[in-house]
Amino acid sequence: MKLDADIALAQRLADAARAAIRPHFRTPLAAERKGDASPVTVADRAAEEAIRAILKAERPDDAVHGEEFGTTTGTSGRTWVLDPIDGTTGFLAGRPLFGTLIALVVEGWPVLGLIDQPILAERWVGATGQPTLFNGQPVRTRACRQLADASLATTGPHYFNDHDGAHFMGLAAKTDHKRMVMGGDCYNYAMLASGHLDVVCEAGLKLHDWAALVPVVEGAGGVMADWNGDPLHAASEGHVIALGDPARLEDVVEALACQH
Predict the structure, then answer these.
(1) Tally of domains in the chain
(2) Which of 78, 147, 173, 210 is 20 to 30 A removed from 56 (C-alpha atoms)?
(3) What is the arithmetic mean of pLDDT over 40-62?
């Protein structure tokens, strides 16, 4: 699958989103509440509108699925999946740990993913069959010889329901809990791809939350899966794990099956 033109386009989409987001960072920005009670700002909407305008002009046959403006259908079998600001809560708190997520999904499988941190000017790009690049240079995940040595990250315990939280704590008990990282949204997956974290575990994610992450993590040598260890696809129900060392996948799935 030749993705060079799509990668170049994704880079321009991220540039447009970055230009829309940066003027609003650390300003007195009002946030509205969406139906699921999560916050949304003018920056989220401006970034997605900027991306959609380019896609409408240059890829009119492709579908677009975005967090803020829903889905527009296409005829090509390809879908651009957008999360203009993944981590709006962190953005509103003035923390540069959020990111713009752009993915290309073909027949339900993510084949191209981009994570852009607009304030720090950091960008990870992953594509099927190609090494993940961070600001143009290849990055690799790190080895993890045993789960007890693993650093574990998640956006926050309050995103788990009681059932999922009990299983997450089963995993946490078997990792190096003194190095556990809370907060970070998509930035945790970028740090895993760059070799700074070992495991990320979350539940309740939607397609726009994780589609861009898969090619980035896997192109760096890691693996992403659901909590059963199965590959993620458009019909996956939102329980997500990412591992820098694929050799630990069975250990993580086993730990998640236990309740702490």
Answers:
(1) 2
(2) 210
(3) 95
Q: What is the pLDDT of residues 192-224, one digit of tens each?
A: 999 999 999 999 999 999 999 999 999 999 999
Does 132 share its domain with 157?
Answer: no
pLDDT surpasses 80 at 239? yes
Residues 97 and 115 in one domain: yes
Q: Are strands 32-33 and 39-40 parallel, antiparallel or unpaired?
A: antiparallel
**Domain end residue (candidates: 138, 161, 188):** 138
Q: State the residue range of the domain holding 28.
A: 4-138
Section 122-130 average pLDDT: 97
Q: Is the distance from CB of 99 to CB of 116 less than 8 angstroms?
A: yes
Same domain, 116 and 162: no
Amino acid at 3: L
What is the Cα Rg of the chain in Å?
17
Cβ pair 144, 244 in contact under 8 A: yes
Residue 37 confidence (pLDDT) above 70: no
Average pLDDT, the chain: 94
Same domain assignment for residues 75 and 183: no
Of all residues in the chain, the percent with pLDDT exceeding 70 is 98
